[in-house]
Write a structure and sequence with these properties.
The chain is an alpha/beta fold and 502 residues long. It contains 18 helices and 20 strands. The strands form four sheets. A six-stranded mixed sheet has the order 6-7-8-3-9-10, sandwiched between helices. A six-stranded mixed sheet has the order 16-17-18-13-19-20, sandwiched between helices. Strands 2-1-4-5 form a four-stranded antiparallel sheet, with helices on one face. The protein is globular, with a radius of gyration of 25 Å. Bound molecules: adenosine-5'-diphosphate and magnesium ion.
Length: 502
């Protein structure tokens, strides 16, 4: 019978060990046989809520019932035993094993005595019932992403999952593969499976789900029946908030174009096109914001501009000079700075402030014979500490002992002291406390007022709205639109971020 509540999560709170409050009293209910969309921006708490349901992490507070029974999972195995399966954005298959071996492993994990024949028999039945095509003899690494995902799904079915959670499954798929996945999900539904479908894509949510729960900043905005709402309603639910333009800033005094991209095409790590023909001009004295949910090509765009990712086609100009073929180091020398999104990538945690600062200032501290002039490096580091108000015991403290905010200040500061003209800054305040966030944002505005050009890539809508003089919304590797912040309502932004043109 449909209608029975197979998942009931009540008053779920989650505070991560580092103090981040990801969920603030979430109620979430899923009915048997439905496709339930879980919709929200970056950081809304979707993945956290589902990792809790899958037993991977524990809620700080709250109660969970699965098929009517109260549960307290100590790990995914407990969840799997209760019939819950999860397909992550990053797959968990063994790439150098065949599909057959991977599926057998999956069965063994719940039934250590199972034979390969048993596994194959189960696969045969699943294939018959679902019409999914599974190339059993191939190595996983030889398969296209869409097929790997299918194997990942079957891996859950072979363990007899009754509730299947898919975390942003279409973010790795082509449109054709997406359509195939949707057909499969509809088939699963007919078979009586229950599906939880995480997404930020409005059209997909509308197309495939029966009900949708919208999360925003760790809270449930509402649960709606899909056929009673349109994409505009969903966009509003996803992003609506009080807009506070807290940060005072003078009008931009825009100068000449410093950085230009022309019809850029860039591949991601898997060789799939992630930037699909982006053009932009960044002017002196402005902050150009790129808003969008992470994973829509912003990282590849930033890396291509910074010179650490190959450009497939298109041109990049800095000060009117074609730099498309130049290395990152050469671009640095011509006045480009890049602050990556992840402090784990940008900083070497065992190294101290002086060493981390020297990393991107090498040409300033290298003497003849390629020896580092440490007293020069120290004076640059102390300039970073002074200008960015870094709080640290000493310049020789390993960076890992600094707070996230102070690490971020080092990462931004070591670029500022080089006096570049163009800053490409990715998610500059992610995971920082309020004070550090304010400081970094004010610093970016100060740089803009000093006549620098700043390309700000951020999935934080408030940040982009507060700081940008112009902003673009990126979705699946393309700009949905470019305009001034005042030209966007929140609803419009939500629609664009969710892939709906307005
Ligand atoms: N392992 C973790 N440790 C600390 N904070 C985390 C962790 N995972 C997620 N967060 C934080 O929790 C919040 C919710 O994240 P997440 O559940 O991934 O959101 P969503 O899937 O909706 O994008 C974000 O602020 C995120 O930075
Ligand atoms: Mg997520």
């Amino acid at each position: 019978m449909s209608g029975e509540e197979v998942v009931v999560m009540k008053n779920i709170h989650k505070i991560y060990p580092d103090g981040v409050v990801a969920l603030r009293g979430v109620d979430f209910t899923v009915k048997r046989g439905e496709i339930h969309g879980l919709l929200g921006e970056n950081g809304a708490g979707k993945t956290t809520l589902m990792r809790i349901l899958y037993g991977e992490i524990k809620p700080t507070r709250g109660e969970i019932r699965v098929f009517g029974e109260k549960v307290s999972f100590h790990g995914p195995w407990d969840a799997i035993r209760r019939g819950i399966g999860m397909v992550y954005q990053h797959f968990t298959l063994v790439p150098t094993f065949t599909v057959k071996e991977n599926l057998y492993l999956s069965l063994l994990s719940v039934n250590p005595k199972a034979s390969m024949d048993e596994a194959l028999e189960r696969v045969r039945r699943i294939v018959e019932e679902t019409n999914l095509k599974i190339p059993l003899e191939y190595l996983v690494e030889e398969l296209p992403i869409g097929v790997q995902q299918r194997v990942e799904i079957v891996k859950n079915l072979i363990r007899e999952a009754k509730i299947l959670i898919l975390d942003e499954p279409t973010s790795v798929l082509t449109p054709v593969e997406t359509e195939e996945l949707f057909k499969a999900l509809e088939r699963f539904k007919e078979m009586g499976l229950t599906i939880i479908f995480i997404t930020h894509k409005l059209k997909e949510a509308k197309r495939i789900t029966d009900r949708i729960t919208v999360l925003r900043r760790g809270r449930v905005v509402g649960t709606v029946e899909t056929n009673r709402v349109d994409v505009k309603d969903l966009a509003r639910m996803m992003v609506e908030r009080e807009i506070i333009f807290k940060i005072e800033k003078k009008p931009a005094r825009r100068g000449e174009a410093l950085l230009e991209a022309r019809d850029l095409h860039v591949l991601d790590d898997r060789g799939v096109e992630a930037v699909k023909g982006i053009s932009l001009k960044l002017y002196r004295g402005e902050i150009f914001g790129i808003a969008g949910v992470q994973g829509n090509g912003q990282r590849e765009l930033a890396e291509a501009l910074a010179g650490i990712r190959r450009v497939e086609s298109g041109r990049i100009l800095l000060h009117g000079r074609d730099i498309t073929g130049l290395s990152a180091a050469e671009r640095y020398r011509y006045g480009l700075a890049y602050v990556p999104a992840s402090r784990r990538i940008g900083l070497v945690s065992e190294m101290n402030i002086v060493e981390n600062t020297a990393l991107t200032n090498l040409y300033r501290v290298l003497m003849k014979m390629r020896v580092i002039n440490w007293s020069k490096a120290s004076s640059i580091a102390s300039e970073v500490v002074r200008r960015l108000e870094v709080v640290a015991p000493s310049l020789t403290t390993p960076i890992k002992y600094l707070s996230g905010g102070n690490q971020q200040k080092v990462m931004v500061g070591r670029e500022i002291v080089r006096e570049p003209d163009v800053f490409i800054v990715s998610e500059p305040t992610q995971g920082l406390d309020v004070a550090a966030t304010e400081f970094i944002r004010r610093t970016l505005i100060r740089l803009r007022d000093e006549g620098k050009a700043i390309l700000l890539i951020s999935s934080d809508l408030d940040e982009v709205l507060q700081l940008s003089d112009r902003l673009a919304v990126i979705y699946e590797g393309k700009f949905m639109s470019v305009g001034r912040p005042e030209e966007y309502t929140l609803e419009k932004l939500g629609l664009l971020m969710g892939g709906v043109s307005v």
